[in-house]
Amino acid sequence: MRCPIGLAAIMLSVLLVLAGCSSSKAAATKDVKITACTADPNGGHPTASGEIVNHSSKSSLYTVHVKFYDASGNAVGDGIAAVAKVDPGTSATWRATGTLNARGPVTCKLSSVTRTAVAI
Question: What is the spatial distance between Cα 119 and Cα 109, in angstroms, rounded to a whole number?
């Protein structure tokens, strides 16, 4: 009986530490921009790519969540990109592939960005 309670306490501690390392989503979103949003000409998965510039003072891991929309504004999938380490003041590129097939032109919008400080 003690094991599950101890394990739960450890997991909660880890979550609290990780939550303390994440920066505000607004600040992280300002670090990321979309530079390309393309549909597959054969109706396949759309892609988005872009650049991250780390404006924080710590090396950081970024998770970028993109939503894809068709010409009528209907959601046609999501894409996620992760960049393991971006040092302060440097840039990195990212690329996300949509989860669903899409025909015709698409637009891409940042849904969320998470920036987490990592150990050097």
Answer: 30
pLDDT in tens, 54-91: 999 999 999 999 999 999 999 999 999 999 999 999 99
Q: Is residue 2 part of a domain?
A: no
Range of the domain at 66: 23-117
In a domain, 87, yes or no: yes
Burial 39-68 (b: 16+ CB within 10 A, else e): beeeeebbbbbbebebebebbbbbbbebbb
CA separation, residue 51 to residues 15, 17, 20, 68, 113 (Å): 28, 28, 25, 18, 12
Residue pLDDT, tens place only, 11-38: 333 333 344 445 578 889 999 999 999 9
Identify whether the C-beta of residue 74 lies closer than 8 Å to the C-beta of residue 112: no
